[in-house]
């Protein structure tokens, strides 16, 4: 039988101590981590980046299929992704948790295991947070800090016409992973004896449950000596993000359907579940790939990077953000936005 | 009739734009606020302080008596209080909200009005956040940054034996305010025609609903040329906080019952509701006053500050944290901690 220790046996301060004891500081810029009224950070003469994300049970995740370890990892990764999207290096995170007594100490340990693995992978220090009861579901609020030299920070509003539009990795997988998980959940609820059939959907399922921030691409771009002219991470789908870049930069865009990188498994799962793979890529969300623009002169420097795909270019007319389809016709890119309400 | 605009009419991006438009940046250190993947902050060569607090409906506040405007103010104030407790100057906040569709746009506007008034008072910039749906109640997660010169930061673990223990303002009021509000709520639920009787409890009620961070005291101490030897803000009650300072500094403490500052109204309300005023001060919580220690040599420099009271001194024996009662007997200071679980 599994051990179950009630959170009340540990108490809030006990839980904080437990987290503190399992936390190793990695960055010289972290002067003081958990254990005082605030953490103390040095910025070593660089600019500080800060971003925050709120994950709420029943809205952002479903514990009936999201393992707590993956969820902890994801909470850190999606925040790190925002620092990547500024061309920064992540340094610290704070993690606040709202917990109902449904959760045991062992469950919280699992969540923190995922958080700590992500902190190792992305080389960030856990420096603080808050723990609280919650009347309802699990609430995870993460704030991340990062550093960047002033002239290396990449904003959303600085793309220029003729800049080449690039994307990392492939798109639509996380959305199809979510659909596959939802489908299996319904099957399971209808017949608890059914075995889940997710073996051939492993890639898309993992993209949904345990996404990665593309810090590897940030390092590749630095090595190639390229600073993007604008950048954003793809949390709400390619359509929403290209519209953000265009609206804020005052540009239009031409994208090409046949350039959009979509994994074979995304195609297979989309076909099986009656979704359009292109719609998954455009509006699916949660891919956490990077969408960025570069000067045409920089193309030679990045073309060897296998995980970067050029998908179009910026244009001068802000009224026209369009995708040229395989058929040759151009259709306007639109997005309902990712309306959570 | 009051206007009611559904959040869905605005959408997440609409809500973010609305917040952005109502936000004026005040600090030269805020390079870029809301509107990109992360905010960009300069630290002007100082150390960065960061702290975060999570407020959850039904645990930290009850909307049946907490006006949204006050709640917004309080969410900022309790975070600023953590920066004050490090002897820092607050600079920026991020605010994340989990909202159910029970809330209208007008309700969120009220909440942000309170947030913005607090940002004005404490001279902090709202630089980012996240908005999300919530299946259940309102969730507010605030992260605050602050700056301090390296040699001015005050930690919890640096008090020395014989240091004088000081406290700002008065204690126990916020707790008695909460008890008064809870009592009135029960009366109202039993008989909705009853008028609330809170006129003579205005001070304690406001201390609960709209606490202030004692940045004024931080400025007074700076003017007096005094850097405390240790400091913490009183969120969980004097007992819990002095135990934190002693445990982390490796000291004991002698406190004196007759020195503990308690407001007359706190006495009156405590007596009416059958509470001990001293217990309210020791274990009540949410006062957000500052508890700090100073070197004996510095006493002359702070004794003119009317809102600072000396309540005891640090001792060498870490096993003895006690309060000398008016009767002359000494009793051990204990705290159940503020166990939310």
Automatic annotation (TrEMBL), chains A, B:
Any Pfam family: AIRS
Keywords, ordered alphabetically: ATP-binding, Kinase, Magnesium, Metal-binding, Nucleotide-binding, Thiamine biosynthesis, Transferase
Record keyword GTP-binding present: no
Chain sites annotated for binding Mg(2+) 3: 37, 82, 233
Domain PurM-like C-terminal: 161-318
Top EC class for this record: transferase
Binding site for Mg(2+) 5: 236
Pathway named in the protein's UniProt entry: Cofactor biosynthesis; thiamine diphosphate biosynthesis; thiamine diphosphate from thiamine phosphate: step 1/1
Residues the record lists as binding Mg(2+) 1: 52-53, 130
Classification via InterPro entries: PurM-like_C_dom, PurM-like_C_sf, PurM-like_N, PurM-like_N_sf, ThiL-like
Keyword Magnesium tagged: yes
Binding site for Mg(2+) 4: 37, 51, 82
Binding-site residues, substrate: 60, 286, 338
Other facts: Reaction mechanism of ThiL seems to utilize a direct, inline transfer of the gamma-phosphate of ATP to TMP rather than a phosphorylated enzyme intermediate.
HAMAP family: TMP_kinase
PANTHER family: THIAMINE-MONOPHOSPHATE KINASE (PTHR30270)
Name of the protein: Thiamine-monophosphate kinase
Organism in which the protein naturally occurs: Pseudarcicella hirudinis
Gene: thiL
């Amino acid at each position: 039988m599994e051990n179950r220790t009630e959170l009340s046996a540990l108490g809030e301060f006990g839980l904080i101590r437990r987290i503190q004891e399992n936390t190793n500081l990695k960055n010289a810029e972290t002067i003081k981590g958990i254990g005082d009224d605030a953490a103390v950070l040095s910025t070593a003469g660089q600019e500080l980046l800060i971003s925050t994300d709120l994950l709420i049970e029943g809205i952002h995740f479903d514990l009936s299929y999201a393992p707590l370890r993956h969820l902890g990892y994801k909470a850190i990764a999606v925040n790190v992704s925002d620092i990547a999207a500024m061309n920064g290096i992540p340094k610290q995170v704070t993690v606040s948790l709202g917990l109902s007594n449904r959760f045991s100490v062992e469950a919280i340990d699992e969540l923190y295991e995922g958080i700590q693995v992500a902190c190792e992978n992305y080389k960030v220090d856990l420096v603080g947070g808050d723990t609280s009861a919650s009347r309802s579901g699990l609430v995870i609020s993460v704030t991340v800090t990062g550093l960047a030299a002033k002239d290396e920070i990449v904003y959303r509003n600085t793309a220029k016409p003729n800049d080449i539009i690039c994307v990392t990795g492939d798109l639509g997988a996380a959305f199809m992973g979510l659909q596959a998980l939802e489908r299996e959940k319904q099957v399971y609820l209808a017949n608890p004896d059914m075995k889940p059939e997710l073996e051939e959907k492993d890639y898309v399922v993992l993209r949904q449950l345990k996404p990665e921030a593309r810090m590897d691409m940030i390092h590749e771009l630095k090595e190639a000596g390229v600073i993007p002219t604008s950048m954003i991470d793809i949390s709400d789908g390619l359509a929403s993000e290209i519209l953000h870049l265009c609206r804020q930069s005052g540009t239009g865009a031409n994208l090409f359907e046949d350039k959009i990188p979509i994994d074979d498994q995304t195609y297979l799962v989309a076909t099986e579940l009656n979704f359009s793979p292109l719609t998954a890529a455009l509006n699916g969300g949660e891919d956490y790939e990077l969408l960025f623009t570069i000067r045409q002169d920089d193309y030679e420097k990045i073309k060897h990077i296998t995980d970067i795909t050029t998908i179009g270019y910026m244009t001068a007319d802000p009224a026209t953000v369009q995708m040229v389809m395989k058929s040759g016709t151009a259709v306007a890119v639109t997005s309902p936005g990712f309306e959570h309400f």
